[in-house]
Amino acid sequence: MPKMTRSFTLDRAKAVKENRTVSMVFSSEYPVIRQNDDGEEFEEILSHDPEDMDLSLLNDGAPLCEMHDLKRQRGVIEKAELDRDKRVGRATARFSKLPQGEAVFQDVLDGIRKHVSVGYNLIAVKSSSKGTTGRAALRFKWQPYEISIVSAPEDPQTGIGRGLRMLANGTYELTDAPRRADILSALPVAPVDVPQGAKRERIDER
Length: 206
Known about the structure:
two-stranded antiparallel ribbon
């Protein structure tokens, strides 16, 4: 299944220059129009029920990247959590001290880079109903695995989501839900600001 993304505006007032951190909203239940394998449009809704939002990868030192390029890691996600009242995902990211990270962080402070986008995988269809546009509205269990600083937000009304099909009984299923090990293997090996001589341990699939 292709990488899925959604974009949000970054508030530079949430940036703390002294420790190079910024707080952000990275997800919501805003419905996005996608297409299934048969070309049929549906509304994709990322469920923000606690049991449907897997934040384990974000809270395991997930990368803060540029433009969803895992080779251009500019920081690390220090904390991700669900705001149950507003039903949004919130995260705090710390930028690297390396020149590339400092440059991006300075652009955030200066209000030049204003947008963030979350990369995520759909895990399972939780429910289906008729959406406000008349299309099928599908609520998904999902897992974010990286957050990126992007120069321009993607159009929230369009997108192609493969690997989804409707069954004969009218329900939906994902045809190729990702495995945890597959996601982990795509992440950069080197963490940000690793002390000399420190050893990084890769988490086993569980």
